[in-house]
Fold this sequence. Notes:
Layout: H1 5-26, H2 28-52, H3 55-66, E1 76-79, H4 88-93, H5 102-106, E2 110-111, E3 115-121, H6 122-141, H7 150-168, H8 176-222
Antiparallel strand pairs: 1-3, 2-3
Amino acid sequence: MTTTPSSTRDSTLTRTANRLVIGMARHWLAIFNTVWAIYLFTPFLAPLFMQLGWTAPASVIYAIYSVLCHQLPDHSYFLFGPSLVPQAPELIAGGMTASASLFVERAFIGSPEVGWKVALCQRDVAIYAGVLLAGISYAFVRQRTRPLPFKVFVLLVIPIAVDGLTQLVGWRESNWWLRTLTGALFGIAAVYLAYPYVEDAMREVMESELARQSALQQLPHEA
Length: 223
């Protein structure tokens, strides 16, 4: 059978796609951890850029993450200031407008007096730090780890639900260490619930694509 340039090109593209899928399935954990690391550490560049006077790239980071996080100043970390976790009186003294509107407050990114706000709130920093650290630890135990029982997952999620909801309805005010603890528990629990299922799914994808690649390699010999 004569092989046309078109069929040869299609076959090459198919093999390339198969190798790409196999590579992603084999290295999915490294890909996930890299993405989470970028997502976690980029918000810390915003205060660094502000400190250096690079307001344009800092503004881009603040704008992007404002879609994903409330960025309330009194729920966020501040770098290059006297306190890592300034409270409302310090923030107002540093230039934040005292307002009942959360939209007004969240727009305050800091000042030389109080420092510059990390573009992700304390709880979200803890969640994604927990996800990243759990993802790194999962690399060492992935072959012998089963999914976290759902009941255990729920128990680990209850603290963040209670802390967040009671604060939301105004019953109490949380603090940075409670947000950190509950957020980290949630992030770690989510990883050990979900990643074993992702591992099984990626293993099936890899086995399927390896079998398909093997079949494609035999086609020229059968033609």
